[in-house]
Amino acid sequence: MLKLKARAKVNLFLEVTRRRTDGYHDLATLFARIGLCDELSFRKTAVPGIRLKVSGPLPGLKSQGDNIVYKSAAKFFEAFGLSPAVEIALKKNIPVGAGLGGGSSDAAAALLGLARLYRVPRAGFPKLAAIAAVVGSDVPFFLLDAVFAEGRGRGEQLRVLEAKGRLPHVVLVYPGAPVYTAEAYGNLKLGAPAEIKKRLGQFSGLCGLLRRGSFVPGRAGELFNRLEDPVLPRHGEVRLARQRLAQLGADAALMSGSGACVFGLCRGRAKAAAIAAGMKRIRSYRVFLTKFC
Predict the structure, then answer these.
(1) Which of 110, 139, 160 is the last residue in one of the domains?
(2) Band of the pLDDT at 123, cuts 50, 70, 90?
(3) Cis bond leading into 273, ω under 30°?
(4) Count of domains for the chain
C-alpha cells in the first residue's frame, strides 16, 4: 500500500494577459502550495483494470471514468505500455469548485503514486510532465517539489520561486457553493494593454519581494486576481467572505483562482487563529487554518 498527500494551492497573483485561439487564456500567476490536502492510496491487485474509490464529505465528487484521477491513471498506463491492475482510493478534503486546484493536485499525485508503485525510473518523468500538461493546466505545478512557482502560458510554463524570510499564515474560507472555471473565464473582460503591462510589473515586484524575504502581506498593490472582476459581482457569498476577512483584520485578502475560496494572510499564527474563529462564528463557512508548505 502506497499513500500520498495531494496538497491544495492558492494564487497570490493572477493576471490574464490574452485569449488564445485554442480557447484557453495566457496567464501570469504565482502558485503557492498550502497544507490542506486530499489523500490518495494505491494498491496493486490481481484483477486487471483500474478501480477508483472516492470518499469524503464533499458534494459534486465524480467517481471512476469521469474523475480526473481515473483519467490520469489511464493515460499513465497507456504512455508507459503497462497493463493496469491497481486500486486507487481518493479521500477528498479540498472543496470542489473552489479555485484550490484540488482535482489537479489529485491528478498529479496519481501520476507520481503510480510512477512509484510501478518503479518508473527518473528518465521516464518527462512522460509524466507531458501527461500532466494534457490533463489540466494546473497539473504540472503539482508535479513540482516546490512551494511557490511562477506560471505562464496556460499555467504549465513554470519557474520555481525560492522564497526567503518568514511567511504569513493562511486563513482559507469556502463560502459553501462552488464557482466553476468556465463561468469565470466566460464572463471575463481583459484589462487594457497599459493596465496589463502595469500588472505584469506588479507581478515581477511581488516575486522579487518573496525571493529577497521582503514580502509583507497587506502592503498596497502586491496581491491581485483578475478573475475577481467577473466572479465577485455575480457571487455575493464570495464577495462577502472576502470582505469579512478584511474586516476581521487579515493583513491581505484575495480570492484564489476562479473561486469560490477566498483566503486571508496574517502575520502570526495567533492572529490567523483568531480570524479563523471569527469567520466560523459569523456564518457556517468551511474554514481552514493552514500555511505555505
Answers:
(1) 160
(2) confident
(3) no
(4) 2
